Amino acid sequence: MSRLLQKPMKKNQSKGVTLVHDLTLENSPLEYVGFKVIDLSPGAKYTESLSKTECCIVALTGKIHVTVGSEKFRNLGTRENVFEKMPTDSVYVSNDQTFQVEGATAARVALCYSPSQDQLPTKHIKASDVAVENRGILSNKRMVHNILPDSDPTANSLLVVEVYTENGNWSSYPPHKHDQDNLPDESFLEESYYHEMNPPQGFVFQRVYTDDRSIDETMTVENSDVVLVPAGYHPVGVPDGYKSYYLNVMAGPTRIWKFHNDPDHEWILKR
């Protein structure tokens, strides 16, 4: 199986805590993006101490309590299923901090990481403050929740968004990339995609490919899978009958999202 396609591991870490994904800079091909998913039973607690790493805690489903030092954020989370399509709550935690996430109910939580040097304030990113954006036309439509866009100075490196794509549509399309540190034309950002489908037995297709085809993989992606994008274009196709959700995490040397479309397919934008 491709190293870019990561299947859920469902590893019991401690009582009431299940580690669904555990992608670190040590065990994945990415150098700037780390990603975990944890499932929490009511009352279960997950604690982590960060060194030179920042983290965005996203309440995917259920409700959680988050403690960072002396700061406490209670009953975060707005939905029982990501396909309710409402923005959710998140908490940004800077480097050299310890945080704890507790399940107020049964909950699934995403932990998004990137290397960080400058300590910044902890921030509760309220669901009500998350901008909702509609992109695309025809069969290239998707809805975006901008949790940590590059216009928000909350983080040092992290960019975090949620994307919904309807059945029969394409997303991250036309194919685009951001793998060159060549501003102002293009920025270098690695990326991870955490996928869910509705109904959950569905699948999507995601291709990751570079101009020189040193990377060229097309993957069948199922519910709760993660796709890693170290470089290259990375479009997603959603079959008829199924709806797609994915959580994107991006990070790189400069916190700017400046992408470059595949010139072979850019003509699609001129329809």
From TrEMBL:
It catalyses: 5-deoxy-D-glucuronate = 5-dehydro-2-deoxy-D-gluconate. One of its GO terms (molecular function) is 5-deoxy-D-glucuronate isomerase activity. It comes from the Bacteria. Keywords: Isomerase. Pfam families: KduI. Gene3D superfamilies: Jelly Rolls. Its EC number is 5.3.1.30. GO terms for biological process: inositol catabolic process. It is an enzyme of class 5 (isomerase). Pathway: Polyol metabolism; myo-inositol degradation into acetyl-CoA; acetyl-CoA from myo-inositol: step 4/7. InterPro entries: Deoxy-glucuronate_isom_IolB (IPR024203), IolB_Bacilli (IPR023770), KduI/IolB_isomerase (IPR021120), RmlC-like_jellyroll (IPR014710), RmlC_Cupin_sf (IPR011051). NCBIfam families: myo_inos_iolB. Involved in the isomerization of 5-deoxy-glucuronate (5DG) to 5-dehydro-2-deoxy-D-gluconate (DKG or 2-deoxy-5-keto-D-gluconate). Belongs to the isomerase IolB family. PANTHER family: 5-DEOXY-GLUCURONATE ISOMERASE (PTHR39193). This is 5-deoxy-glucuronate isomerase. The lineage of its organism: Bacteria, Bacillati, Bacillota, Bacilli, Bacillales. The gene is iolB.
